[in-house]
Amino acid sequence: MPPQHTTKPQPEDANGPKLLSFEFFSICAISVLAFCNISIFYGFYSYLTDLGIPPAWRGPLMALEPLTALLVRPFLARYLSLKNAVQFMRVGMGLATLALLCYPLATTIPTLACVRVLHGMGFVTVVSGLMGTLMAFLPRQKSAQGFGLFSVTILLPYAIMPPFVELLLPHIANHGMAYALAAPLMLPAFLLLVPLGKRVCALAATLPQSHLERPGWDEVRQALKTGGVLLLVGANFFLVAAHSIVFFFMRDFAAGIGTGNPGAFFTCANAATISVRVLGGNILDRVNKGRTLVITFVWLGLLVPLFAHAWRPAALLCMAALYGTGMALTMPLVNASMFSISPARLRAYNANLLMIAVDAGFFVGPFLGGAIMAGELGHAWLFGVGGALMLGSALCALPVARIMRRAESQAEQG
């Protein structure tokens, strides 16, 4: 007889899917804690300036952490399965904690490069395991709502940590010390992995063996040929590249126009995003995902260049709220669309393809932004490039509506 368990998580059953479970809340809590150690880097460009790092090196050093994740994630995704996802998170948290503690000691280009690589390796390992676990517990019928709520856990640190760090900075030596002070946040995340690991083992015991095995290269190649997969990866890449420009370079611009607390931009943007996703999350599964993506990407593509013309703090904060509203729709819809068109066995792999696009976007965005600022082209060029990247997302999303309708029709017939 198969082993009996007191807890058998059922992410999807005949009586209807269950989204709000202990497993889902644990995954969300770990995500909040993990992204706290990334959201504090909103001022990393300013920190590099204070350290006397030459302008030509600031962009590459900012981009080095996501570049590391970009190079490592395809290898990790190939070996990730439900059976080892929790172990991935444990290893990644250990590496990320070590990197955070090393930032105050890294004050030269070589030492900063080493710490950024270490941080990138740790963070990508955490998130790969996190996404693999989320895919196992996320019900198909509530995928957009689930991704919307999960993405709130990513955004919440960006709303809280920047203004908190701004209040903390006058009382500590520099940003490097603030990065080190984020290291203890990994401790409660480690503790949450104990009960979550038991639930994952219980779920794994109820699944067919084929769902626990790593996908073969033939399956991976077939997944890439599936209609819409590469389009969604491309849309996510352009979206994140544009967003990373806003994230890394908004602080200096906001301070330049007299905003008292430059972190307030992120608070307003993320407050709007969180409000939309929490209050309207269940609507996301009922809209035409492809069409909504195109409209929202065009909206953001027109809005981002206007940031450079917000000469008053109040105007910039109003734009931040509009920006956050647009971002509230894009990320969960991209992920839910990928979830819908992916076979169950390849959902975790395809989710990590989207994360590869995130890594690439967070590499290209700061690299382009650093080059623009090093060339003294100004914020109008900087945010103009961000808007063009958003319009690139719209072009990728145009064919997705038709592909999504066909996939949903096939699912209903099946």
List keywords for this structure.
414 residues; mainly alpha; Growth Hormone, Chain: A; 17 helices; globular; disordered N terminus
Question: What this model shows, in words?
Answer:
- The structure is a single chain.
- This protein has 17 helices and no strands.
- With 414 residues, the chain is mainly alpha-helical.
- It has a single domain (22-413), classed as MFS general substrate transporter like domains (Growth Hormone, Chain: A).
- It is globular, with a radius of gyration of 21 Å.
List the helices and strands and how they pair.
Blueprint (H helix, E strand, L loop, with lengths): L21 H18 L4 H7 L4 H25 L5 H18 L6 H29 L5 H26 L6 H7 L4 H21 L2 H4 L4 H9 L3 H28 L7 H17 L8 H15 L9 H29 L5 H28 L4 H19 L2 H14 L1
Helix pairs in contact: 1-5, 1-6, 1-8, 2-3, 3-5, 3-15, 4-5, 4-7, 4-8, 5-15, 6-12, 6-14, 11-14, 11-15, 11-16, 12-14, 13-14, 13-16, 15-16
